From TrEMBL:
Residues 105-336 form the ABC transmembrane type-1 domain. PANTHER family: D,D-DIPEPTIDE TRANSPORT SYSTEM PERMEASE PROTEIN DDPB-RELATED, DIPEPTIDE TRANSPORT SYSTEM PERMEASE PROTEIN DPPB-RELATED. It is a multi-pass membrane protein. This is ABC transporter permease. The chain crosses the membrane at residues 12-36, 111-132, 144-167, 209-228, 263-282, 313-336. It comes from the Bacteria. Pfam families: BPD_transp_1, BPD_transp_1_N. Its main location: membrane. InterPro entries: BPD_transp_1_N (IPR045621), MetI-like (IPR000515), MetI-like_sf (IPR035906).
Amino acid sequence: MSRAGTRTLAILAQFARFLLVAMTTYFGLLAVTFFIGRIIPVDPVLAVLGDRAPAAVVERTRREMGLDLPLIEQFYIYIKGVLQGDFGRSVLTTNPVMEDLRRFFPATLELATLGTLIGSCVGIPLGVLAAVKRGSWTDQVVRIFGLVGYSVPIFWMGLLLLVLFYVKLQWVGYPGRIDVAYEYSFTPITGLLLLDSALQGEWTVFSSVVHHIVLPALLLGYFSLAYISRMTRSFMLNELSQEYIVSARAKGLSEARVVWCHALRNAAVPLVTVIALSYASLLEGSVLTETVFSWPGIGLYITNSLQNADMNAVLGGTVLIGSVFIALNLIADLLYRMLDPRTRVQ
């Protein structure tokens, strides 16, 4: 077989392994969420009917929901429904769970994306600066700044920022995603209000959205920054100690070019995974931020559903977040292979 044919087969085999890993991980996610949902001491029938429903009604509803079937059969029905985009109906909103997820997830996506952009655009330069100035007061300030981001509870800092910037200074909008005046008069297209208002030329709406999103986005950006800056510093210290850096300096290259074009380029390979994980954690872990700022995102939706024993909504939201984690990890793996020639198929 020719070299080109061998390479094609290797690429196809790699792609097949990629799909197998994705499908296996997703199946495991569905299995874990389903069986945890059945183990926890919450009766979905009583969540629908209430505690005072007659026993005959409870039994009939249990049969209609398929909860009288063996667990394996229930799991098969659940898998078939999920693959068709059917997570059941939410008890809390009475809507199909998939419809609720489509409505709530864009708010979380918008907030987490801004937080990740802030964390990356500020955290990477700070991490590089700390590594270059290792041991100096600049390095110490950056490290302390990041340590505070790790240590301070996010809900406490969120409340503090609300008191300062909303109550005292009145620089930002009240908790929520948009002013009440525009909530029902503005029709979103994608659910990403910043993008939708800009596309439609609704600049007053855009300004309102900015006033509401700036504080929670900065808060999430700060916590993302703390993680990204720390990891960037670690990766850069490792790269700056390599022999190719000494060789580049010996050739007379400027320090800026050595740091930003050579060291950072190699540090960017593992940094892709760090940013992807940070982004996924903001999509999944912004529950407290959404609660403090009354942000109508997926985290607040799952929290309210859990408090009301709405297990269809909880499982649907968990599967969605888990799917995002899987997708981002797989994308990070692909980018890793693109950036690092050593991982490419020969």
